[in-house]
Amino acid sequence: MDSLAAAPGTGPATSPIPVLRPTRVRKSFADLPTDRSLVMGILNVTPDSFSDGGKFATADDAIAEGLRMHYAGADIVDVGGESTRPNADRISAEDEQKRIIPVISTLVKAGALVSVDTMNASTAAKAIEAGAAIINDVSGLEFDPEMPDLVAERGVHYVLMHQRGNPQTMATFANYDDVVDDVITELTNIREKFYAAGVSQEQIIVDPGIGFAKNDSHNWALLGSLERLEVLGHRILVGASRKRFLGSLLSSAGKAAPPSERDSASIAVTALAAAHGAWCVRVHDVAANLDAVKVAAAWTR
Ligand code: PMM
What is the pLDDT of residues 21-49, one digit of tens each? Predict the structure, then answer.
């Protein structure tokens, strides 16, 4: 308890930094609500993410923001240390771990359910030891070959996101016959490697990978056909918050709206995705998106 009170990122009640309220009740996957879609708060501990680049680059700032999301009602806080924006350089697994493991441990101690946004099995293993319950892997076809065994051994949930290539090359792979069919086929093929390692259907969460090797019309086609992904038989996660296709949609005088002006559109996507079968939405503004999933649940009930 004392060690928690002294954790970085905490402060007196009057401080703008949220006070870490230690809890013996740690959220587990089984405790997640089932009467509405879930809200996953995005916590990028990176100097260069496209949507919130550099804002939470230090552990203290990241912990403070993660606590804010947790106390704002995030069902899951997604902690990542490596930027996945187009053309981002990869960092070493060691640097990634230095950035995120202290953040994950502190958020878990505060009772948050944490997912780790990583493409490295070694980072995922350390994050699980620090208390993370979900691995969120955006690597798609080029996943770390150690990942299936790790997911099987640790029994954690795994977000299998559709992606082609890597941040440097993905734009060149945005060619599909029918983007929805192709995404379903490619996710089915990758999933086989996880099944072969002993991962269960229930452990896998699928994600169409909005913005990853997709142009604007691919993104809209996937969102508009979200229910077709249900054929895979997994929970569905959607990450559209503040993404570039929303900037294009809202452009004025030929200029895309910047990420800071994409929240209303992101919330609209959340409400529609939730009404069309999304189990979870990955978002920046937790409180507003929580309202949106509640509206969708009431609407469809
Ligand atoms: N998008 C980003 C990063 N991680 N994870 C999942 N599962 N789905 C996504 O769509 C996704 C992700 C990139 O966006 P960011 O820079 O806002 O985190």
Answer: 656 577 899 999 999 999 999 999 987 65
Pocket test for ligand 1, best of 44, 116, 138, 270 (most atoms within 8 A of CB): 138
Determine which one of 243, 244, 262, 301 is catalytic. Answer: 243
C-alpha pair distances (Å), 274 with each of 160, 227, 265: 19, 11, 14
What is the pTM assigned to this prediction? 0.91
Give 202-222 pLDDT, tens digit per residue: 999 999 999 999 999 999 999
The yes-or-no answer on residue 85 being catalytic is: no
pLDDT, tens only, 95-115 = 999 999 999 999 999 999 999
- 243 carries an active-site annotation: yes
Nearest atom, ligand 1, residue 210 CA: 10
pLDDT score for 201: 98
Structure tokens at 264: 């209303």
CA–centroid distance, 160 to ligand 1, in Å, is 12
